[in-house]
Each structure stands twice: as structure tokens, then as C-alpha cells.
Task: structure prediction
Amino acid sequence: MKQKLVLIGNGMAGIRAIEELLKYEADLYDITVIGSEPHPNYNRIMLSPVLAGEKKIDDIILNSYEWYKENSIELITGDTVTKINRLNKSVETEAGKIFEYDRLLVATGSMPFIIPVPGADKQGVIGFRDIQDVDTMIDYSNKHKKAIVIGGGLLGLEAANGLMKQGMDVTTVHLMDSLLERQLDTTSSAMLKTSLEERGMKFLMEAQTAEILGDDKVSGVKFADGSTIDTSLVVMAVGIRPNIALAQSAGLYCERGIVVNDTMQTYDPSIYSVGECVQHRNNCYGLVAPLFDQAKVAANHLAQVGIARYEGSITSTKLKVTGIDLFSAGEFSEEEGDDILIMQDAKEGVYKKLVVKDDIIKGAVMYGDTMDGTWYFQLMREKTNIADFRKTILFGQHDLGDTGHGDETRVMSLSDDAEICGCNGVCKGDIVNAITTKGLFTLEEVQAHTKASSSCGSCTGLVEALLASTVGEGYDDTPSVKPLCGCTIHSHDQIINAIKDHKLKSMQAVREFLEWKTPDGCAACRPALNYYLLARWPEDYQDDAQSRFINERAHGNIQKDGTYSVVPRMFGGLVKPNELRAIADVCDKFEVPEMKVTGGQRIDMFGIKKEDLPAMWKDLSDAGFVSGHAYGKAMRTVKTCAGKTWCRFGTQNSTRLGVKLEDLTWGSYMQHKFKLAVSGCPRNCAEATIKDFGVVCVDSGYELHVGGNGGIKVRVTDFLCKVDTEEEVIEYCGAFTQKYREEAHYLERTAPWVERVGLTSIKEAVVEDTEQRKELYERFKVSQKIFQVDPWKARADGEASHEFTPLKIA
Amino acid sequence: MSNWIEIAALNDIPQLGSRVVKTDTMKIAVFRNSNDEVFAIKDECPHKQGPLSEGIVHGTSVTCPLHNWKIDLKSGEAMGPDEGCTNVFPVKVEDGKVYLDL
Result:
């Protein structure tokens, strides 16, 4: 017989836990959900747009009644659990129903705090918490003119904005002298207040509510200084309190909230708790991201997997008032020893402030331009050392490289038909609509549903900003440990380290050791694991063709019509007449429909049928060509300029050095494509300063540059160091390449890698520490011994012939 | 009426891989997963006709190499939020031989 699971509270945290549980174990429990409200689970944080008339109730339902039915969940709405009987493991409802449980999940959420002043019980005094409150407010706005919102925090301002949109004359009363004092410093708070006042909102600051006036119904509010304001509606938005009365009456240990351990278990081992009612490591959370983290952990234990732990969350905040861009995270008021970075432009209405200690971001406040809020938040959570770019950090991430969206940094002011994702043609309206109607909370979900930011990724920042603005407080942008994919809970770094530290030498060993959820992984993790293993254990690991993307399996670049393109390697971009003749002959023989010269100074032949590839490679191989790896996550090309052999400005032999570098690095697999260039003088005709590894020759030697990119985000290289000889260039190149190969995440190019780990740490290993440089270089050469083989010749000679031969019907 | 045609030995298809059968009118992708189960579907992604035979196989699904749509090998249907379907053909393995019903 199945065990019984009862969930008290039909809200976002509890239902998310059930959803996560169903992903693990769909049939472990008979599930009953009991909720007081007469609705299925809805998106509570979308109540503000509903109040503002921008959304309807139907738009914010997260789980329809059908969802409960499809998952065989018994749903009781409009009834409240009044008693938990822990002795015989049952709960009792107001309507007198009794439900037995084996496991109980308490997700009773929180209640608005109603200030206990005289008259607080009058008709017309409400909180802002559920659909009923919104209905009441809209109802009042149809019949009455004036409203007072008590509380100048996030919730209060959203309520005031909504009531104003419904046509009411709203005064927001705040006890403190600045709005959102827990999220903003005084400067940004004043900017916000001005902008809200321009929209018609009134404020009464430093006012303490003394009494609610009226008979049964509210007629006004009296303040401590004796002044009064007339009103028909009072919305109390001064805070929430964990709803712990039920748990307390059952004798569960509570302080401010229901106290749970890192597995979300209460003091009663059969009872778990998640959401706003919970107190974990002395923190109570009222934002959605932490609640979802908790739900995941609780589900993991309810499913008897038993390995997840909740270790608390850092949260960020955005105000959901349309047209106002505001972001805050972490500690924003400075303490002694903190550094404050500020950028302020009053005319443009832009304010950015970072609180930094020892080159680590502690907090961020932004007003006006919040585009980079998600980036600062990520740097803060990952405790990234910002020393290398703190001089420019306030100009935003685009200063590290253009995202290709120019000045479009104020996403909330864009029109609905503004294109966000240029690859897949997804507009702002499509994304916002999907987020609200489908109840999306993470970047991955938005990618899956809209395809925005799922191709080249250059619009990821914009999509994240939209997600933050739409979902508002604490959307889940980067979980503290971002798993590689859905098959595992481990991050890239954890996997890379486990492979190294525990000498895991096969994919099976990695999946078993790290407790993979799927037997053979997925299209995201298999290529990554295959790469990590062959990069770490080149001599031991057996490359797995079925875990390679088709381009690397077929050794050509798959095109939209299923044909392939073929690019032979031309070392340093040099080519001889007989080689060109051979290429021309091959093109005639195989009727190649189109040829072009690539950006990397090679020749590309398009439209090759897969079956023809081995024969074509044989001809190319006979003419002395090897694969150009133009299809792979691999070393691609070394681009060169004419150099001092011919050029009157040339300072060194750039073509010869280019050939040497290509001789060294060709055939090497990487996390992503990897390009080199050698320019013969600082005029830099080979564009070496937008390559992964670039050499700029000067009269006195060679300048080495790393981490450049000319693609999605143009990024100019960082200067690594200057060396005197070609031999040194070779050694430094091998060492840098190997450092990248061993440490970067799969599909991470050198540009974001250098930004993530910091140039300083790379310099330490490759430049300053001679011994480490030599070791890295040696390891690269060992790997090259195995991998520097021409895959084209091997296939021309018959290897993996099944890949290229269709089956014949007998 | 079924018309079983022998197309290959099971071992001609790599585990977690596929082979393509060309008929007069179309290409059919025949997949083999890690449990040696065999599936046959039309070699066209419902999204933009990408060659599914070139995708990465995992569990009982394949990920299209062009735009990462995930297709269920048993039903031919797109998984996740994507919608679309490709044709499925009956296929069986007997004595290490793979048969396709056209």
C-alpha cells in the first residue's frame, strides 16, 4: 500500500515541493492537498499586476484543477486544517474532515501583520496577501475615491501603485523617513519617491498610525501627531508574520517560524515544512527563490533520496511597478572597511552603487539602469574577486564586451514588440507573456518555452532582466550551485574536481560516483563529461563517439539541409599552387555547389553529402591536407599577417610563428572553439587582440594577449605578458591552452572564462610560476601525442565507416 | 498486413547511436539505446526537418542536432514544452537481427 502524504497549504512553496517530488517519485505517495483559499495554486507574487489591471486572475494560476487530477492528487479547497494530531498521525479540518498521514508537509505561509491600533478591526482594513484582498481593493476602487496604504516597503508601494491604477487617490504612509529603507540607500530612495510622486502618488513620511477612525466602516486615519486623513480603505502592508499558529498548537517547536533543519524537517521527524512559515538557521524568507530551493530539498527527502541540504539563500529585490527600474541585493549600507563605488547621473535618472569589501561585492543598489543587476548579483553570490575590472565595473558587463544590443539596457521601457532574441525572433511581449501565463521562474524555463536566449546566448542578460522585472522579488537567476544539467545536482567545477581527485576515468564511473539521475545522461552532459575525461586522462580515457555532437562525430560542419561543409587545414594560412589545384579538383569531382574563404583564412567547401565525405577526405589527404577542425570544439585556426618577410612594417616573422603555433596546437579538443592569430607589428592586421590567444610582434619581442573574442560579445584580449623568443611564445601558448583545457567549463570560451576566474590567477600560473608553466606545457604535449591525429585520414582509411553508410534494405 | 524487412544485425547499430535506412520516398532513422531497445522513426525533426539520426541518444529519446528539440523515440512526439510529431515505424529484434515494418 502507498504511503499517505498530506500537504497543508495550497500555495507556491508547498505545491513546488509536490512538483519536485513527482519528478523523483510519482507513485510513492497518495497525496492530499488542503488549502484555505477557494482557488488552485496561483502565483502570489503576480497579485500586484492583477491589482494594477495588467493581468487577470486566470493569467496567474500556476496549477489548474486538471493538474491535480492528472497527478491523482486529492485537492480540498476552501477548508482549513484546524488540528494536527501527531499521536495518531492525522489532521482535522474546519469542516470536520479527518485525513491520516505518514508524512506531513506544512506550508501554511504567512499572514499580513495588522498593526494593533484601535479600530484595526473595522470593515475596510485589509492586508495585501491573497486574491480576496485584491478583489476587495478593486471593489472599493469602484465605489470609493480615497485609499491609504500603511507601509512604504515593496508590498506597500506595489499596493499603492495598483490602487492608483484603479483610479483611487492614494496616500502612502511610512513610519521611516525614506521609502524601501531595507532595500535602498537614501539617494536611490529619494529618486524613487520623486518618480512615484510624478505619477501622482502621495506620501506621508515619518508618520505613526495611532487610530483607525469610523463606525463599523473606515472613515479615516489618525496619526500620533494628532493629524487625520479621510479614507474609505486602509491597506496594511507593514510586513508579514510566519503563520505558525497551527504548528504551535500541535506542539511543534517554533520560534518566529516553524524551526527546521537543513533537510526541511521539523522537530517531528514525520513532519516537514517549507515556505514563509519556516525558520531556518534563524532566517525567515518571504521571497520566492529561497522557497523554491527549500521545496527542492524537502522533495528530495520525501522521495527518500536523502542527499540534498538547504543551506540558506542570498536574495535580491526588484520593485514590480511598471516603468520603474530598481534593483537591490545584499548589504548596501557601508560599514567601516568597505569601499563604496558610486555612479550617479541625476538628469538621466541613473544611480548605481556597489558596496565592496576586499574586492568582493557585498551589496548592490541600482536605480534607473538595472540591466547589470543580475550580473552584480551573480558576482556577489559567487564571491568573484573583482580586482581585475573594478575600475570599469560600474559601467556594466557590456563594458567587458558589447552584448550586441547597444543602448537597450532599460528593458522595462522597451515596447512589447521590441526584439530581445535576435536568433529566434522572440519579442519582449512574448517573453513577459510566457513568464506570467506559464508561471516561469528560471532562465532555463524561459529558454525552454520561448527559445529566447537558447541559441547564441547574447541576449541572456536582457532575458534575465525581464525575468527579474516580471517575477520581481528574488527570482532564481543562479542557484548557489548551478548543476551542469537536469541529470545531476553537481556543478561543472564539482565534476571537474571529482574526475581529477577521485581518478574517475569513464563516464560510467563519473555517473555512479556523482549519483547521476539518468542512466545515460543527456545531450547536455554527455559531451561535457566526454570532454572533461579526455582532457584530464588523455592516455587512459577512451573517447566516446556517441557522446560527441554530430559535427565532431562526422568531422564536418552539419548545415541546415543536413549536408556538411569541409575545411582543410592550411597552416598559418599559407597555401601552395598544387594544394589549391588539389582543392579545385576535389570540388569538381564532388560537384561542390559553393566555396568561400572563411574568416580564419581557410577555404570552405559547402553542400557535401555525408556519404561522400570519406572519399573526399581521401583525395584531400593524398594532397597533403589534414582536417581543419572547423566543425569542432577544438583548436581552429592560426590567422597571420604577411610579417617581415614581405611587409615593410613587419617586425618579426609572423607567418613562420603562426605555422609553428598551428603545428603545436592542431588536433587539440577544447571546451569550445579556440582561435589564434599572429600579427607582425602593432598595426595588428591579423586581429590578434580578439583571439583566444593572440601574438602581437614588436621590435623587441612578442606581446602575448589572451581571452579575446570577435563573436557574440566582442571582447578585446587582456595583455598576458611580453616574451623575447619564438620558443617562449610556444611554451606560453601551450601552457595557457592547457590551463584553459583543464579548468574552464564545457562550452565556455576563453573570454568568459578569463572574466570568471580573473586574469590574475591565470598570470600566476602561466607567467609568474615557471615550474607550473612548464608542467602545464608538458601536459599539453602529452595530450597532443594522443589527439594530434588526422581524423579525416583515419576515416578515409575505413574507420567508423558505419557513420557514413546508410543501411540497405535487403 | 505487416511486412517485416530485415535491415541489419543489431550490432551494426552502435549503442546510443543510429543508422539510416533510405526508402524510395524518405529516410528512416533506426536507433539503439543503452538497453539494446531499437526504435525507428522518420529521420525528420518536426521543428525544421533536422536529421534526428545525427542526434545524441539518451534513455528513450533523441536530441535533434539542429536546435536541440527532444523527441520521444517511442511515440515520435516532441518532449517538454515543444509540440510536434514525426512518424514512428514498427521495428523488432529477433536473433540479433533488426526488422522494420514498412
In short: The interface with chain A takes residues 5-8, 12-17, 19-23, 27, 30, 33-34, 48, 50-51, 54-59, 63, 65-68, 70, 80-81 of chain B (CB under 8 Å). DSSP finds no helices and ten strands in chain B.
